[in-house]
Amino acid sequence: MLHIVACIKQVPDTKIIKMNPKTNTMDRASAPAILNPYDAHAVEEAVRLKRRYGGTVSVLTMGPPPAVKAIKKCIEIGADEGYLITDRAFAGADTLATSYSLTKALEKIAQSAPIDLIICGKMTIDGDTGQVGPGIARRLDIPPLTSVNKVAEVNREEGYAIVHRKLEDGYEVVRSKLPCLLSVEKEINEVPYSAMPDVIRAARYQPHIWSVNDLEGVDRTQLGLKGSPTIVSSVWAPPKPQGGELLQGTPQEQIDRLIGILLTKRELFQTGGGAADEL
Ligand SMILES: Cc1cc2nc3c(=O)[nH]c(=O)nc-3n(C[C@H](O)[C@H](O)[C@H](O)COP(=O)(O)OP(=O)(O)OC[C@H]3O[C@@H](n4cnc5c(N)ncnc54)[C@H](O)[C@@H]3O)c2cc1C
Fold this sequence. Notes:
Blueprint: E1 2-7, E2 10-12, E3 18-19, E4 26-27, E5 33-35, H1 37-53, E6 55-62, H2 68-77, E7 81-85, H3 95-112, E8 117-121, H4 132-140, E9 144-155, E10 160-167, E11 170-177, E12 180-184, H5 196-204, E13 208-210, H6 251-264, H7 266-270, H8 275-278
Parallel strand pairs: 1-6, 1-8, 6-7, 7-13, 8-12, 9-12
Antiparallel strand pairs: 2-5, 3-4, 9-10, 10-11
Helix pairs in contact: 2-5, 3-4
Bound molecules: flavin-adenine dinucleotide (FAD).
Flavin-adenine dinucleotide (FAD) is lined by residues 7-9, 36, 38-39, 42, 60-63, 91-95, 98, 102, 120-121, 123-124, 126-133, 228, 230, 232.
């Protein structure tokens, strides 16, 4: 029986989040928190594999207490158990510290049931780095398989998985030993509406909640801000695009107007040479 752990993160909905114009940082309160869309596909794939081969799906997240909501969403998708690690000591973590904390939690989960497969999303929609999955794999010394868009086979008895990895011009088929870590693309599956029994179960479900003291052998210097060598030197929102002008009139009038506009922007062309001279 497979034991699959999907790592999931609660993120602000970046489609509607606002930037704070003074600090140039995300105003997290301005948008609802949702399950990272890539992670929904990670959980769905874990659930599909459970149905195919039998087993258990656990989900793991590091975040503040409201991240319980994201775990419940995963239970709706069909996960069996959820684990939240939450503690002030984890706050301010960059991807290095995040992967360290998650690895410590994975080691603890594995004590009760050894893990065959870890599935992550390709990336988050707020941090966007795609580093956490490979970071966990490196720390656990297991193969990281990124850009996975199909899981062809998982054979626990013989200890291997065969997956398809998306490339720019196609895909490659990779056979890896188990346990391994997959970072999955959105097109790996479609996440359907949840079944009513799963929705009811999710509403009642209480995840396992661990603080740093519940984890074993933790080096506190590798946690949170203290364990984060990344320095964000500056962040800014791109300027809003200026309104354009709709060219009107006859085709000739539109061409004349366009040339007029281009001539007023002549300096834009001068560094490139050629183009301005030809106008
Ligand atoms: C100096 C610094 C301070 C920061 N402080 C904070 C902070 O206080 N609060 C904050 O929210 N962010 C903070 N961040 C952002 C934080 O580094 C990232 O959100 C986090 O490390 C995950 O990276 P990512 O979002 O790029 O994930 P990616 O690497 O893009 O995620 C890939 C996959 O890894 C898994 N994953 C990622 N994060 C988690 C998680 N937390 N739990 C479980 N699985 C996960 C998911 O499967 C995800 O799809 C900080 C960043 C820096 C550089």
